[in-house]
Amino acid sequence: MSIGVLFSSHLEETVAMILFGIGFSLLLLNRNLIKKIMGLNIMDTAVYLFLTAKGYIYGRMVPILTDGITDPNAYTNPIPDGLVLTGIVVSVSVSALLLSLTIRLYDRYHTLDLDKIIMEWRKEEDA
Amino acid sequence: MSRIRDNYKSSPAGRFEAWYKDGYDPMDDRMDIHIPAQTEEDYDPTDVIAGLDLEDTVYDRTANKALRISGYIYKILSVVLCVVMIGVLIWMVQYLPAFGQPDNPVNNEVSARYIGSGVQETGAINFVTGMILDYRAFDTFGESCVLFIATICVQILLRYDEGEKDPENVRRRHQAATDRLFEPKNDIILQKVSVVLVPLLFIFGIYIILNGHLSPGGGFSGGAVIGAGLILYLCSYGYSKTERFFTIRTFRIISLAALITYCLAKSYSFYTGANHLESHIPLGTPGAILSSGLILVLNICVGSVVACTMYAFYTLFRKGDF
Amino acid sequence: MDFLRNLPFFCIMLAMFTGIVSSAVSGRVARRLTLSMVTAVLVMSALTLGYAEQVGESITYLMGHFPAPWGNEIRFSTLEAFLALYFAIIMLLSVLGGWSHAVIDIEAGKENLFYVLIDLMMSSLLAMIYTNDLFTGYVFVEINTIAACGMIMIRQNGHGIVAAIRYMVMSLIGSGLFLIGISLLYDVTGHLLMVPAHGAVEKIVTERTYIVPLLVIIVLISVGMAIKSGLYPFHSWIPETYGYATPTASAILSSLVSKGYIILLIKIFYRVIGFDTVISSHVLNALFAFGVIAMIMGSVHAILQTDCRKMIAYSSVAQIGYIYMGIGLGTKAGMVAAVFHLLTHAATKSLLFISAVGLYEVSDGRTDYLGLRNAGFRNRVAGLAFSVGALSMVGFPMLSGFISKYLFATAALEKPHKMLITLAALIISTVLNAIYFLRQVVTIYSGRPGEAVSTGRFIKEAIAESTFSERFASIALVLLNLFLGLFSEVVINLISRGLDLFA
Question: ipTM of the assembly?
Answer without folding.
Answer: 0.94
